[in-house]
Amino acid sequence: MEAESQSPKATNVETKPKLHSDDQEYKLRAENIDVFYDDFQAIKNVSLNIVGNSITAFIGPSGCGKSTFLRLFNRMNDYIDGFSMNGDIYMEGKDIYDPSIKVEELRKTVGMVFQKPNPFPKSIYENVAYGLRIQGISDEDYIEERVVESLKQATLFEEIKDNLDKQATALSGGQQQRLCIARALAVKPSVLLMDEPTSALDPISSGKIEDLVHELKSDYTIVIVTHNMQQAGRVSDNTAFLYMGSLIEYGDTQKIFTNPEKDRTQNYITGRFG
Amino acid sequence: MEAESQSPKATNVETKPKLHSDDQEYKLRAENIDVFYDDFQAIKNVSLNIVGNSITAFIGPSGCGKSTFLRLFNRMNDYIDGFSMNGDIYMEGKDIYDPSIKVEELRKTVGMVFQKPNPFPKSIYENVAYGLRIQGISDEDYIEERVVESLKQATLFEEIKDNLDKQATALSGGQQQRLCIARALAVKPSVLLMDEPTSALDPISSGKIEDLVHELKSDYTIVIVTHNMQQAGRVSDNTAFLYMGSLIEYGDTQKIFTNPEKDRTQNYITGRFG
Amino acid sequence: MNSTESSRLKDKAFRYIGMGTTIACVLILAIFIGFILYQGINRLGWDFLMALPSRFADQSGIYTAWIGTLWVLGLTTLISFPLGVGAGIYLEEYGKDTWLNSFLEINIANLAGVPSVIYGLLGLEAFVRIMKMGNSILAGSLTLALLILPIIIVSTRESIRAVPSSIRDASNALGATKWQTIWNQILPASFGGILTGVILALSRAVGETAPLIVVGALAYVPFAPQGPLDEFTVLPIQIFNWVTRPQHEFVINAAAAIIVLLVITFAMNGIAVYLRNRWQSKMNW
Amino acid sequence: SCGPSGPSKEIKIDGSSTVYPITEAVAEEYRSEAPNTRVTVGFSGTGGGFKKFLRGETDINDASRAISASETETAKENGIDYVRLSVAFDGLAVVANPENDWVDYLTVEELKKIWRPSSQGKVTHWSDVREEWPDKELHLFGPGVASGTYDYFTEAIVGESGSSRGDFTASEDDNVLVQGVSTDQSALGFFGLAFYEENMDKLKLVPIENENGKKVKPSMKTVSNDTYSPLSRPLFIYVNKEAAKRKPVQDFVNFYLSNAGKLAKQIGYVPMPDSAYQAQKEKFKAFYSQSDTTTAE
Amino acid sequence: MKVKEKIIEKILAACALITVLTTVGIILILTIEAVSFFQEVSIIEFLTSTEWTPLFTQKSYGILPLLAGTALTTMIAIAVALPIGLIIAVYLNEYARESVRKVLKPLLEILAVVPTVVYGFFALMIVTPFLKTFIPGLSGFNALSPGIVMGIMIIPFVSSLSEDALSSVPDSLRQASFGMGSTKFQTAFRVMVPAASSGIIVSAILAISRAVGETMIVAIAAGHQPRFTLDPTVPIETITAYIVQISMGDVPHGSTAYQTIFAAGITLFVFTFILNNISYWIKSRYQQKYE
Ligand SMILES: Nc1ncnc2c1ncn2[C@@H]1O[C@H](COP(=O)(O)OP(=O)(O)OP(=O)(O)O)[C@@H](O)[C@H]1O
Ligand SMILES: Nc1ncnc2c1ncn2[C@@H]1O[C@H](COP(=O)(O)OP(=O)(O)OP(=O)(O)O)[C@@H](O)[C@H]1O
Ligand SMILES: [Mg+2]
Ligand SMILES: [Mg+2]
Ligand SMILES: O=P([O-])([O-])[O-]
């Protein structure tokens, strides 16, 4: 029920992302998040709303907490020793840290792609089928259909369609990363988290992934961490700038890159620090 | 018998270091040096003469071959698998790669200080005495005299004179590095090679080492590798700029820093690449 | 939803199965040791340690056995320590990356996997018969020394490898010869690790039975040995001898002797672990 | 505790595991008599012991049978002279597991059926021995081939020394046999009577029908009066001549003969009459005092 | 100076060559005795006859009963050690907290330092009587009890080596699996274990090799009866136990009976040699994979 002009919450800042008419329209909402690793506070009172079917980029210097924040949305921090948090994260209005939420279910809805391509040491086919198999699906026809479709979505199918039995680890880095995206897509998530998905890749492979991300936008809500300013500028609708655990500025990517409100953002984007 | 105005050899360059009247005055001479690590050529046809009782700095971007070149002068590359070289290195006119040369003897004349302080896990006293002991010297009085004198030369004596029995590893980083210098001095070398001797140290410790290097100049020929432009400028008489294994420019430090002949040198010194 | 439920259930079940299995193993060990203590602890005493073997179980002791064990241990150390450390130094410091080195490496890996009873056959033929040492302490010790040599070599190499190359560089740059560097720097710096490996290897030797039986140490030796060419018995063989007797009193003797053997083995392992920790914390370069 | 002892104060004994307990007991008692004499006793079996004895490696050999013809041959070749001294009697006990409730007695014929070589792999169940017995697997235990007990048993039962089936648990260590039989319901085994007496509670003694048709259990009495036949026998020690010239050996053997009767009884063997021991002592004395006869140069 | 250096190097090389001498010695001794054995006994009989009675009047030299005994106890040991070791490895690596692992792992490794003669005692005095309460027909000497105890003894080999293999699998795979919504169980058995499979196989092979060569446990608790059977409840004999049994008596040098222990020894050596080399080969390939 928030007003049309309302901006997403952020510590001490009022920034303007692309807005929608209804609270329901926020696919993801983070409210007053603190994250601690033992005594060290990695995220400091960050609030931030993300609308559906958009691409949001997290930028900031190394160690500012981008990955930490991203991983909150599929609860991947849960396994880290010493991790603790305050605040709430909602997905489509539901508190994902509520005890009634099954974290395995959540992760099927919120897919994730990592910095370094990490295919399983199995065949290409079995990599993509993995998410379905662990759900107990055994209908081979359905699995095959999903594998092919996901590989097509990830624009990988044409390159490897004759080699679905090949070991995934034998693919090139760029292909591996697209495979990892296909693997995430196979279980039909609605959110896709990507943590520096191209930082280990050459420029050509990176370009392919960027194109792919663009295409996926119509079906998925995508949050992407990147240290590549140009990439953030090219690919995202909204950008959040984090610095030492705090959200400095958040809003329309165009705006952030051309006319940021904070000097810090300005300095970072023009490469004067970080 | 070379003419007074002759400049040291360098691949495709004519640069002017501080000159002396006689070939004999060149403490060290490298002629047409190629170095290979297996198939990879790390040094490409470099020639370079160094006069006695001077400080020569090697600068250049990481991986350009500074350390490789420096370590030729005490044959420390000999142990590296796959190392091979062409060309000759003379010290006071003698070819140090001649089979008749005993490498252990050479190293007593050419001391070396490394990037990370590497004292032995023994007492301070025994660290400095080590070089004497392995020469078979057993006259304790003489050893003590050398230890004290070397520590004094390395401007460390005052700080630790009451603790000569202390473990050397318990000293601070800067003290450890001065200890390593004292250790090298104890055997009365005439050349001192230093490979980034201050890069692991804080600015204050670095300053002390720089002062020390300056003082040692009157007795030793010093060759120092550094990635710190300011340091090279402050400390050295001559500077050699290496780039991808080639010697780009070599000459008077003042000249190199204020008015280099090559654009590459200019760019590197002003920090435009490297 | 359903599949998530069952996955979670399996997950939970395995957590308990895993914990249960692990604890069960530790528990079995506890039961074993508890049983031994229960059977044997009352038999232990000064008399038991100092008595010679006897046909009466309650007058029988392990004097000859532990003296024999000490002899064998000492002699095995004397033989295997210099050989193993020397071989380790050679492999790590000399002739690296030669075909000989990789051959030696495979060979040592293989020797480490040869069953101990085969070493017994080697000892029987080579030492007892060809070199005519008979069933002596020397023959037994030589056999055990060969048996533990691979362990000592491997741990020596690991310890030497743990010494940072900066130490080696520093020594070389001062004009030290290879051996001077090894003797003055590498060995002192790796000594803790080497010692750990040697003690672990010896603790294995203390418990070895089969190779000694094969070289002929299973005799009734009612007198403590006085020299390396004497016949001998050791604790594990004394235990074996008593275990095979049907009379309960001898079984109790066996249990008591096992307590002594376990104390020795655990103590050696404990010392080794302690040394390793101390060495590792000292060697944080 | 004891001072340096020259090699001459060392006495090496090996041989029969049946005689071993007697010799062990004597050696142990002798420790207090002559603390500086080091007596070592092995139990390689009579045959195994003779191998060493005839190579001159041991001074005394325990034997639960007389020396064989081929062994005598070897002795001549090696120039070993020796004397045989009797030390006690023994019976061979045939034993089963206490839980075995069917075996009441065995005839010599049945024992032969069980143990002869041709029965290997054929007589494998109790029912193969006597039809009314259960169809349970027959697990056999006996002394190893190096033992005099084995030789004696095969001679007495099968008819040829050293001839038997091979598929049984054979051990020179009688303790292993006791353990095996006492823990295995379908076991049948044999060994010296003394081992039965030491482990009576764990074993069932099987009576043997002798040629008079009487079912006899071995005991002190039945062995010494010869009614337990054919499985009773004398036990010996053999002393090397060279060794017998050494004073410590003479002392030890005399001590042995003086105490064997008492100790044998303690352990479960059948002692000889005192006069017999006296006769053995004299035989021994005559042996080591006489000049060399057999040793050729 | 140079001369001294050379001498030292030669001495050190000699130390290293002792290991070669050892191998040569083992192979030579086994081969020489085995060759004279095979001059008496046909290799066909050795490999095919199902009876092993070299000491009796009706001599038969079939190694199969000893091999069967070795195979039987080894299989029982592996059946115990492999699943338990693997479960423990997975549990310690994927489930247990660091503090728990720090306590449990060294405790488990105690199992591997207990001398084998002590395990023989356990097998004979504890495990066999315990098993008898379930299996009344169990002989006092049998393959089952020493097999199980041997299995317990080699659990730490399997668990430690497998855990090393599991922990060398990059964490990114675990992350990927969790990120897909897998439970720890699914992650462990569908991703981690397959990814670590070569290391786990190495641990299994080394465990087998160890079980094949284990001597005292079987010498004490398995009986000494060469029997061509896979029945775990009756007395059997392994190759190793046979060597010990013969060594306990005095079989004269040069006799065929004496040579049998070398024929048995070379059989044992060949098996363990093959196993060790397979594991060495897998290990050197697999170590390249994750480095
Ligand atoms: N497991 C952990 N335990 C303790 N501290 C951690 C842990 N992970 C991250 N941190 C700390 O939390 C802070 C934020 O880390 P995070 O990985 O989120 O940064 P980032 O912005 O993603 O950096 P980068 O660009 O280098 O990936 C850093 O200071 C980091 O050192
Ligand atoms: N042991 C070696 N084996 C193979 N290549 C080597 C080895 N040491 C150095 N190189 C290569 O030789 C080149 C020169 O190395 P060197 O260490 O001399 O560079 P450098 O100028 O000292 O660099 P830095 O400033 O990083 O110390 C580099 O490309 C390096 O990768
Ligand atoms: Mg990150
Ligand atoms: Mg360098
Ligand atoms: O050991 P034996 O008495 O049977 O020879």
UniProtKB/TrEMBL annotation, chains A, B:
GO molecular function: ATP binding; ATP hydrolysis activity; phosphate transmembrane transporter activity
Record's compositionally biased regions (Polar residues): 1-14
Protein name per its UniProtKB record: Phosphate ABC transporter ATP-binding protein, PhoT family
The organism's place on the tree of life at top rank: Bacteria
Domain ABC transporter positions: 28-269
Matching Pfam families: ABC_tran (PF00005)
ATP-binding among keywords: yes
Organism of derivation: Fodinibius salinus
Region of interest (Disordered), residue spans: 1-20
Keyword line: ATP-binding, Nucleotide-binding, Phosphate transport, Transport
TrEMBL record, chain C:
Transmembrane annotation, as ranges: 16-41, 62-91, 103-124, 136-156, 182-202, 209-225, 250-275
Species lineage: Bacteria, Pseudomonadati, Balneolota, Balneolia, Balneolales
Cell compartments where the protein resides: Cell membrane
Membrane topology: Multi-pass membrane protein
Primary localization class, coarse: membrane
All residue ranges annotated as the ABC transmembrane type-1 domain in the record: 66-272
Protein name, as recorded: Phosphate transport system permease protein PstA
GO aspect biological process, one term: phosphate ion transmembrane transport
Automatic annotation (TrEMBL), chain E:
Alphabetical list of Pfam families matching this protein: BPD_transp_1
GO cellular component: plasma membrane
Keyword terms: Cell membrane, Membrane, Phosphate transport, Transmembrane, Transmembrane helix, Transport
Molecular functions per Gene Ontology: phosphate transmembrane transporter activity
Domain ABC transmembrane type-1 intervals: 67-279
PROSITE patterns membership: ABC_TM1 (PS50928)
Membrane topology: Multi-pass membrane protein
Subcellular location: Cell membrane
Stretches that traverse the bilayer: 12-32, 63-89, 110-131, 143-166, 187-208, 257-282
Entry superkingdom: Bacteria
GO terms (BP aspect): phosphate ion transport
Main function: Part of the binding-protein-dependent transport system for phosphate; probably responsible for the translocation of the substrate across the membrane.
Entry's family note: Belongs to the binding-protein-dependent transport system permease family. CysTW subfamily.
NCBIfam families: phosphate_pstC
Protein name: Phosphate transport system permease protein
Upper taxonomic lineage: Bacteria, Pseudomonadati, Balneolota, Balneolia, Balneolales
